[in-house]
Amino acid sequence: MLSGLDERLVQTARRVGEGFRLAVAAALTKPIRVEGLRSALEQLRPAVVWVPSPEELRRAINAGELMLHLQPIVEAGSRRPLKAEALARWRHPERGSVSPDRFVPVAEAHPELADSLTLWAIEAAGQCQRDLASRGLDLAIAVNISGANLRDLRFPDRVQEAVRRGGAEPSRLTLELTETAAFQDPVRTADILLRLRIKGFELALDDFGTGYSSLKVLKQMPFSALKIDRSFIADLPTSRDSAVIVGAVIDIARHMELQTVAEGVETEEVAVALARMHIGALQGYHTGRPMPLEELAVWLT
Question: Higher pLDDT residue, 37 or 90?
Answer without folding.
Answer: 90
